[in-house]
Design brief:
The complex is a heterodimer.
Chain A lengths: L2 H13 L10 H17 L3 H21 L7 H6 L1 H7 L4 H31 L3 H29 L6 H24 L5 H29 L1
Chain B lengths: L5 E11 L2 E11 L4 E5 L6 H9 L6 E7 L2 E4 L11 H11 L5 H7 L15 H15 L3 E5 L7 H16 L3 E5 L11 E3 L6
Parallel strand pairs in B: 3-7, 3-8, 5-6, 6-7
Antiparallel strand pairs in B: 1-2, 1-4
Helix pairs in contact in B: 2-4, 3-4
Classes of the chains: A mainly alpha, B alpha/beta.
């Protein structure tokens, strides 16, 4: 197996739920909790829930994506893992590309799975659920990329998870607008645009995050 | 190990923040050479090693490397939650080493392989980092304060490992403010390169 394959296995062992870095079911449970609380808060108004439920799922997904960020990059930077990888010819960009894949795998599939019970709680119909799932599939790689980019940039700063989350929210707005917007206008280009933003972010993140890690060394 | 590793520094200068730590630092090491970088805390020993490793850019000058680099510094680069054996296994698999447990045994860690890394003492962690270095089979060793936290027996072990590495045609650069017996008596005092 190549070095990157071994690196991916390690990253997954750390980040997957039940993984060694306290990778937990927390984002998943948090996401479900929001979907459960919302009907309690607005009352048993089925048409209102069906109309707004998709947007709530999107907001819950965005917030759940923030939870794993504090342990995504900073611990490895402190341990000197990236230094040792660099000495072995694994560039920071490659390490970050692998980390991005591991990060997405560790939260997005579970989130998509949790969308089904969440949709049931909010009383969403078949077509809405389909667009919601497609939208999340298109949007979560972008959320994962943004999260990793910001986690890498703040890793050397010791500012903690709160700032990372605050930085992610405004940058995730375009994905939210197009992804959730597709629910109201299924025939529009929302899904495609959310996917396009995701692709762009996924392509740029390994370079931006890799540069951030090199910059942290100089600091 | 590659034949004839070499590492040379040419007119290196290092700046951290607004401070120029050292300038005009040059040396050249070939197979079998060992060099002791000495100097008080904060003089730039770690920065020099990181420049030599290619992790920091020098403010001026350049580094010529021919051979793979292995580095042990203050951080073990081992996952704190993982058992020691597993944490070492990750690096030895990456380095293509087939018998990592041998190296752990050599450093007196054989009985600790099931213990999570976070329970290890400072000295044990240093030994674990050295086991990782042995498994890497790198030609050029950069050791940053390798004696920190080690007991007398551990110090002798490091000296023996460095001697064996150099006898096998390797290069060792050891930054230490403590006395250490190296196969060659070369000492580079960074104080000599202050402005």
């Amino acid at each position: 197996m190549s070095a990157l394959g071994k690196l991916l296995l390690r990253d997954l062992a750390l980040l997957l739920p039940g993984g060694k870095r306290g990778g937990s079911l927390l984002p998943f449970l948090f996401f479900l909790a929001v979907a459960m609380l919302f009907p309690f808060a607005v009352g048993p108004d089925a048409p209102l829930l069906a109309r707004t439920g998709g947007g709530v799922v999107w907001v819950a997904a965005l917030l759940a994506a923030i939870l794993p960020l504090d342990r995504l990059v900073a611990p490895d930077l402190e341990l000197g893992i990236f230094d040792q990888l660099h000495l072995r010819g694994v560039s920071e960009e490659a390490a970050m590309a692998v980390r991005l894949l591991a990060h997405w795998l560790s939260f997005a599939p579970l989130l998509l799975l949790a969308t089904l019970p969440a949709a049931a709680l909010l009383g969403l119909e078949g077509e809405t659920v389909r667009i919601l799932l497609l939208g999340l599939l298109a949007g979560t790689p972008g959320l994962a990329a943004l999260g990793l980019m910001i986690a890498a940039m703040t890793a050397g700063l010791r500012v903690g998870a709160a700032l990372t989350g605050l930085l992610l929210i405004p940058m995730a707005v375009p994905i939210l607008i197009f992804g959730a917007g597709a629910l109201a206008q299924p025939e529009g280009a929302g899904l495609g645009l959310a996917g396009a933003i995701s692709l762009l972010l996924v392509a740029a993140t390994p370079f931006a995050a890799g540069a951030a890690i090199r910059a942290a060394r100089e600091g | 190990m590659q034949p004839g590793p070499k590492i040379a520094a040419q007119e290196l200068a290092c700046r951290r923040g607004d401070r120029l730590l050292f300038a005009g630092l040059s040396f050249e090491l070939g197979a079998g050479d060992a060099l002791h970088l000495s100097g008080p805390n904060g003089i730039g020993k770690t920065s020099l090693l990181r420049i030599l490793a290619g992790l920091l850019r020098p403010f001026a000058g350049e580094v010529l490397r021919d051979g793979s680099i292995g580095m042990v510094d203050g951080r073990a680069a081992l996952d704190p939650q993982a058992p020691l054996g597993q944490a070492l296994q990750f690096w030895s698999a990456l380095d293509g080493c087939t018998a990592p447990d041998n190296h752990a045994d050599q450093l007196g860690l054989g009985h600790l392989l099931d213990v999570p890394v976070r329970y290890l003492s400072t000295g044990q962690l240093k030994r674990a980092a050295l086991a990782r270095l042995l498994a890497q089979d790198a030609a050029i060793w950069l050791l940053d304060e390798p004696l920190n936290g080690l007991d007398i027996e551990g110090v002798a072990l490091v000296e023996a490992l460095v001697a064996r590495h150099c006898a096998g045609g390797g290069i060792a650069l050891v930054a230490s403010h403590q006395a250490i017996t190296l196969p060659t008596r070369d000492v580079l005092a960074i104080v000599d390169f202050l402005l």
